[in-house]
Amino acid sequence: MNTVVAQLQRQFQDYLVSLYQQGFLDNQFTELRKLQDEGTPDFVAEVVSLFFDDCSKLINSMSRSLERPENVDFKQVDSGVHQLKGSSSSVGARRVKNVCISFKECCDVQNREGCLRCLQQVDYEYKMLKTKLQDLFNLEQQIVQAGGAIPQVNIN
Amino acid sequence: MGVVTESQFHVLAVDDSLFDRKMIERLLQKSSCQVTTVDSGSKALEFLGLRESNESDDPNATSTSPDVEINLIITDYCMPGMTGYDLLKRVKESAAFRSIPVVIMSSENVPARISRCLEEGAEEFFLKPVKLADLTKLKPHMMKTKLKKESEKPAEDVKPEIEEEESSVIEILPLHQELESEQQEPVLSNNKRKAMEEVISTDRSRSKYNDITTLV
Predict the structure, then answer these.
(1) pTM of the model
(2) What keyword terms does UniProt attach to this protein (chain B) (predicted)?
(3) CB–CB contact B26 A82 (8 Å)
């Protein structure tokens, strides 16, 4: 039983570290994990879930705004990017946030093509992160079910 | 009903984003504060008991005071309708509530915006994402309101009174080095500027993941 837990914990740890190393997550995700405790064991999962819902909604509405070349609502797009940048930054979703930075630049100069490219990229990145984090949370669940504790992983 | 215990501060958090409200709520709870969140400036005013129109005629103007003592308002800057800045102004213009410290949060680092808020009386300006460490700066401001209420001082600008209260506040506070150094900073506008510069130039560099330690 102990070795199963230890193995799972090792897996979890390695996986989380790899997400940082590959640039999917940054320090802010660590900050987020600090806010979770025994009283709020689902906090990170809830916040992350809210974030992905936001991504989906915002991407859809920005897509609609960008749809017709002769009538792009850049104000709306800018507002969407602003929100996305803010929440990705708060969650530690580094790649998503970085795309948002480029996205904002395209929006500022009213570059529709650029915006469309960024939109596609943001969509790709958030979905990729969603899969990765789902795997991470599954590992967490397995550890808990096996009676173990979630390792504290300190990234310096 | 709800008598606020001595050690618990009650913070009113204002943000139009559900996501951000969830974040700030957890941050504040983790910092041992009671939290009420609202999604707009006007709801914040409503909660405080300030009406849009003449507050002195309104019997509800100070109705929240006995039951709900707010020790700090933390608000997002960018909100539709009433911005955080507008809310700050309304609070500071109100005789009943101007002594409540107000903190502004923003995801954008705009020095002119920060100056304006600090000049209007905001105690701090936090750049989002707000971290747990940022919230340790709040305790000194909230302590002032508790002491004020106890000594029944009139609701005027807190700043000149700090020297007087400082020694007793330091004794009460837990042994946090950051808190002590915050206390020793004279609270003048040019030092608020300094605090603002520190906020702007806060090390936001991404960590180099050279040293990874794990605790199991």
Answers:
(1) 0.75
(2) Nucleus, Phosphoprotein, Transcription, Transcription regulation, Two-component regulatory system
(3) no
